[in-house]
Amino acid sequence: MDNLSTRTLAKFIKIAKTLSTSDIFDLIMEANLWTERIDKSSNRQEILRSALMNAHSKAARDDNALQALLDFARCLVEFDLVNDQVELIPELQESLRSDGYELVLDIIDSSVGRRGWRYSARILPFDSSRTPLHQEMTALENELSDRSYTVALGHYQLALKHFAEQDHPSSNGQLRTALESLIVSLAVEHTGYNDSGKANQGGAAIKKLYTVGGQPPTVLGRPLPEKDGGTMIQGIWDISHLNGSHPGLSDAHEARIRMQLVTAAAQFLLRHFPAKP
Predict the structure, then answer these.
(1) Residue 153 backbone phi and psi in degrees, to 5
(2) Is-above-0.90 flag for pTM?
């Protein structure tokens, strides 16, 4: 998994610096960031900076240090923050997205919270191919699950499994089927496309998701203009059919590129065609 940027660490400090020193120590300890190098007499920002930068310097070679930084982010947003701090969380979410992670928030009731509610948080990686054994759910899997796209989810998870097992042609084939299932589901929900229940509908369904000859700007939830997203998804759909599940036609490099392309295309489509209320 990718290390966090110093820009994201600065967002941590921006949110946490107004907490009490005691609360900051609690957060650092809960995230397993505590070291004897922390100068307890420093001001709150320097205490945070010391703990975070120490882990950051180790994270490139130590997954435990990276996990500690991610745990700090989760613990921080789940803390009993005041409104001014809560208003900074969208900035943190955007910074984490730039680093390759999705901060997923759910509101839970809290009888002791100052706001009457708190966040429950998960941090999910965008890039599934960075996790060879795939021990975590990715942001894409989470979105597919939340929207009940179970067929697409099942094929995507099989693609990840086959990729980890270095069965690259099979991974490609499952990716293609996952993308087709997602395309059909989105076309049914957003364009009135009629799902016949038959195989090989992706080519027809994708034509409903963009307008041939269409020009920018895009409108959320409406078919994409060809010149602003349409050509891209059509191209990824086309390339997903080359060197698919036939033995011997795909190597690790090509399979990784396909995984990244299809994952990005699926995330792009899910964002443009949001869940129906």
Answers:
(1) -60, -45
(2) no
Q: pLDDT digits over 53-81, tens only?
A: 999 999 878 889 999 999 999 999 999 88
Taking a C-beta distance cutoff of 8 angstroms, is the pair 51, 38 a contact?
Answer: yes
Q: Is 112 helix (H, G, I), strand (E, B) or coil?
A: coil
How deeply is 97 buried, as exposed, middle or buried, from its count of CB atoms within 10 A (0-12, 13-18, 19+)?
middle
Task: Return the closest-CA partner of residue 195 out of 155, 151, 226, 238.
Answer: 151
CA within 13 Å, CB half, 138: 24
* Measured distance CA(253)–CA(68) in Å, rounded: 31
Beta strands in the chain (DSSP E): 101-109, 117-125, 210-211, 224-225
Query: How far is residue 111 from each of residues 27, 33, 83, 118, measured CA to CA in Å?
Result: 21, 29, 17, 10
Q: Would you give the DSSP letter of residue 273?
A: S
